[in-house]
Amino acid sequence: MTALDRPGRGIALRLLSGVLFAGMAVCVKALSAAVPTGQIVFYRSAFALLPLAVFLWWRGELPGGLRTRRPVGHLLRSAFGAAAMFTSFSAIARLPLAEAILISHLSPVFTALAAVAVLSERLTVWRVLGLVLGLSGVLALVWPDLGSGADTSRLLGYGLGIATAALTAAALLMVRSLARTENPGAIAIYFVVVSMTGGLLTLPLGWAPTEPATLALLVLAGLFGGAAHIAMTLAFRYAEASRLAPFEYVALIWAALADLLLFGTPLGPSFLLALPLVLLGAASAAAERDVPRPEQDAGPRLRKP
User: Fold this and answer.
1) Of 49, 48, 32, 52, residue with least CA distance to 40
2) Residue 262 phi/psi, 5° resolution?
């Protein structure tokens, strides 16, 4: 039995990665009122490095697997991913957790459209439909906050969420390119190092004191993030991307529960209206790319940053 013949194990690992990513997002949300975003990014990246390094050492990919022939490619991918982390954490600070995560699910739509512009892939009806549905969902989410009494912080959060989806799409295109020649472990490690450096550069802007409770949440955010990346990587060893794709959206359940039980934020009618539109848009944009075509080579699948 090959690795990809164990879909049950792959699905379990994909669900576990969703729980771990949700745990990371909860930590970020809890910290966001008192801790600057750059400080959160630094600790999240620094402590994610620990489980990632142990995992790569266990697989025999450390340090040999970190050799690269494309340092500029790694720098670009990591810069896009680090910028996406900054905008994502800033959006989480301004929006309910479920809304911030929902908007991030626009990334498959932007990835499909960017592939048309950058990689000269075909513009299909599925990709156009994905864009229309996804943007309709965002409009449904934002509409109640438009007008004379608009909450500027929430509107900024929506904008940051859309920026996160676009930056994530750019990072995924770079991952697609790098994965043809580079070790996945190298892609992950260099991203974490660049993100950590980006967070550290914000130190002159002022960091919050790391009281024991604050430090614990910062460390947990990093450990959850690193462990989630490992679980996702292993999931794709045991099941195909198309089989795992539906389980990516289960993470929204954990975000909604966290909003309700931990942060006392109910799900509004605009979120319930936007939810199916955004998810259908993401599914539409991704489904067309999952259908193999004779003229395509069997290139590596995309992975989240």
Assistant:
1) 32
2) -105, -35
The amino acid at 127: R
Task: Calculate the alpha carbon distances from 4 to 228, 231, 261, 296 in Å.
Answer: 20, 15, 37, 21
Buried (b) or exposed (e) across 50-73, using 16+ Cβ within 10 A? ebbbebbeeeebbeebeebebeeb
DSSP class of residue 21 equals H
Question: What does the alpha-carbon distance between residue 161 and residue 157 come to, in Å, rounded to a whole number?
Answer: 6
**pLDDT by residue (tens digit) across 171-192?**
988 888 888 888 888 888 999 9
Measured distance CA(3)–CA(31) in Å, rounded: 39
Residues 17 and 231: their CA atoms lie apart, in Å, by: 5
Q: Evaluate the omega torsion of the peptide bond into residue 63 and state whether it is cis, within 30 degrees of 0.
A: yes
Looking at residue 190, its amino acid is Y
Contact call for residues 18 and 204 (beta carbons, < 8 A)? no
Residue where the block lists tokens 């943007």: 135
Say what the pTM is.
0.86
